[in-house]
Give the backbone structure.
Amino acid sequence: MKAGIHPEYREVVFQDVTTDFSFLTRSTLASKETIKWEDGNEYPLVKVDISSASHPFYTGKHKIVDTSGRVDKFRKRYAQK
């Protein structure tokens, strides 16, 4: 790897602003905000709108779409006469 061209890879806290869920991971994202984590250290804070705590797929609150009804309606409407 070439020296000096890669971003700094460090520990960062991601916080879901809708559920106040936070997790610590490693990233190259930069942030001016910081937060004191559970281990007593201070880490850069990156705020996100959706995480596994608020996304409908992971929470089980997603809607199941009836695609078979749509397909039948389409075929009936545009059937060759």
User: Anything to note?
Assistant: The helical segments are 56-59, 67-77. The chain is about 20% helix and 30% strand. The longest strand covers residues 10-16.
